[in-house]
C-alpha cells in the first residue's frame, strides 16, 4: 500500500511542478507581449507625429517668390 501512495505522491508532485512552471511561463509571456505592444504603439504614434511635422515643414519653409 505504501508503494501506491509513493507513486501517487510522485504523480501529484510532478503535476504540481508542471503547473507552477506553466503558470510562470504564461505570466511571463503575458507581460512580455504587453510590453512589446506598448512599445509598438509608442513607436507608431512617434512616427506619425514625425510624418505630420515633415509634411507641415516644407509648406511653411517654401519661399514666397516662387523662384
Q: Number of DSSP helices?
A: 1
The major sheet is characterized as: none
Number of E-state strands: 0
What portion of the residues fall into strands of 2 or more residues?
under 5%
Please give the share of residues in helix: over 70%
Report the radius of gyration as a whole number of Å: 29 Å
Overall geometry? rod-shaped
Mean pLDDT: 83
Runs in which pLDDT lies below 50 for 5 or more consecutive residues are none
How far apart, in Å, are the first and last alpha carbons? 100 Å
- Structural class, by secondary structure, is mainly alpha
Listing every helix as H and every strand as E from the N terminus to the C terminus, the arrangement reads H
Question: How would you describe the overall organization of this protein?
Answer:
90% of the residues lie in helices and 0% in strands. The chain is rod-shaped, with a radius of gyration of 29 Å. The model has no long low-confidence stretch (mean pLDDT 83). It has one helix and no strands. It is mainly alpha-helical.
Structural key phrases:
single chain, 67 residues, mainly alpha
Amino acid at each position: 500500500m505504501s508503494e501506491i501512495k509513493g507513486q501517487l505522491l510522485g504523480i501529484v508532485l510532478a503535476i504540481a511542478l508542471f503547473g507552477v512552471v506553466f503558470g510562470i511561463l504564461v505570466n511571463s509571456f503575458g507581460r512580455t507581449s504587453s510590453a512589446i505592444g506598448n512599445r509598438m504603439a509608442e513607436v507608431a504614434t512617434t512616427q506619425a507625429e514625425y510624418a505630420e511635422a515633415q509634411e507641415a515643414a516644407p509648406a511653411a519653409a517654401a519661399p514666397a517668390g516662387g523662384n
